Hints:
hypothetical protein PF0899 fold, three-stranded antiparallel beta sheet, binds zinc ion
Amino acid sequence: MHEMSLAEGVVQIIEDQAKSQDFERVITVWLEIGELSHVSPEAITFCFEAVAKGTIADGAIVEIIRTPGQAWCYDCEAEIQVPSLIDPCPKCGGFKVQVTKGQDMRVREVEVE
Ligand SMILES: [Zn+2]
């Protein structure tokens, strides 16, 4: 599963931070998931809990932040919001759009003690 390797990446990031910042337990993890990424919040939460077992992030709460899809329309010469990768520009209906945001997933913040 795609989300399983992403979850492993998140746990890896947290463990690296634990080494450099010297914390012992992770309470909450905020994950930013772009609306245009094919990451399911339910699946990533489930996978994270499974992958985190026995690590410093064991039992951590996963909070998901959805970030909207953004694109650049070459016809309007403006930043636009796009609900999916295949939608045209909502202003002019054109397809000369380049997605700029909302395709990725990243760790925004980790609450530790
Ligand atoms: Zn446009």
